[in-house]
Amino acid sequence: MVAIGTSDLDIFPLALGGNTFGWTSDEAASFEILDAFTAGGGNFVDTADSYSAFADGNSGGESETIIGTWTTARGNRDDVVIATKVSQHPDFRGLAPDNIRAAADASLTRLQTDHIDVYYAHYDDDKTPLVESLAAFDELVTAGKVRHVAISNYSPARVREWLELAKENGFAAPIALQPHYNLVARRNYEGELQKLAVDHNLGVFPYFSLAAGFLTGKYRTRQDLTGTQRERLTTGYFSDAGLDVVQGLREIAESRSAEISSVALAWLLARPGVTAPIASASRISQLPALLDAPALALTSQEVQKLTVLSDAVA
Fold it and tell me: 137 with 146: CB under 8 angstroms?
């Protein structure tokens, strides 16, 4: 177990992404995945109020609803750390103070709980003064509706501004960052954002940690993706250099008798600042490889091999 930044929250170092719930996993399949995740030692579930408004027939909030129904049915709310986000739900766009308050209440209702453990600003809102958004987040913490606040998809400059404003105004300080980060997408995190995370002891939870399935080795050509539900998300990762990374993962996985996805996640866990990658599963059969990652300690040579292959992608 690892702590999230400076908080009192201890988690298994692999976060289960809830973006598949109500999209590629119906309620029954989602319950099965959540049951297996917690049985395997996992306790941190990451979702957003907008999941999965991007799927045909969905309006947003489907993932939170399933998670809330599951925790209520299992009676395990206090055993699970739940993170959700605000700013992208079709009914609650942006980070105006009133919107943050209303979106939080809507999330609490769907999650069937009285508190959110980690509440992210999902995307920056340059139309609202940051200090006003932070004041609204702080109100939620003071009211007990939110335990901790966190930041997703913000530039280093805006993260720095958030930290400064929180200190100046006595607002609840953020405990975590959620960047887009994996072996074939390193630019957003490495460098200034990584330094901020390390210097300020922020937990780091990379999303798209398996590049929307590309780093599982499942897709060897673009044609393999045609007609799949993940086609739009995964196509952008394809390149000859990216396929070389997958081949490197495959070689290490075979030598370790491990799954390719386990190796990809283990590489992330070896990177400075990373607390736990976020990975999702549409089927229970995909879960063991995710849960195995924290115990797979790569050698320095294996990390270097993958890093060099990854350097060529940029």
Answer: yes
Amino acid at 261: S
Report the DSSP pairing between strands 2-3 and 10-11.
antiparallel
What tokens were used for 111? 């999650």
How big, in percent rounded to 5, are the helix, strand and coil portions of the chain? 45, 15, 40
Q: Is 171 helix (H, G, I), strand (E, B) or coil?
A: coil
* Distance in angstroms (rounded) separating the CA atoms of residues 43 and 33: 12
DSSP state of 123: S
**What does residue 121 show for φ and ψ, rounded to 5 degrees?**
-80, 115
Q: Cα–Cα distance between 55 and 61 in angstroms, integer?
A: 12
Could you read off the pLDDT of 111-144 as tens digits, one per residue? 999 999 999 999 999 999 999 999 999 999 999 9
What angle (nearest 5°) sits at the alpha carbon of residue 130, between those of residues 128 and 131?
115
Residues 132 and 159: their CA atoms lie apart, in Å, by 15
Residues sharing a CB contact under 8 Å with residue 154, sequence separation 6 or more, in sequence order = 121, 123, 124, 162, 177
Q: Which helix (H) or strand (E) is 265 found in, with range?
A: helix 260-269
Residue ranges of alpha helices (H) inside 40-124 are 62-74, 97-111
pTM of the model: 0.95
Describe the strand order of the beta sheet including 278-279 as a list of residue ranges: 203-204, 176-178, 146-152, 116-121, 81-86, 44-46, 15-17, 278-279
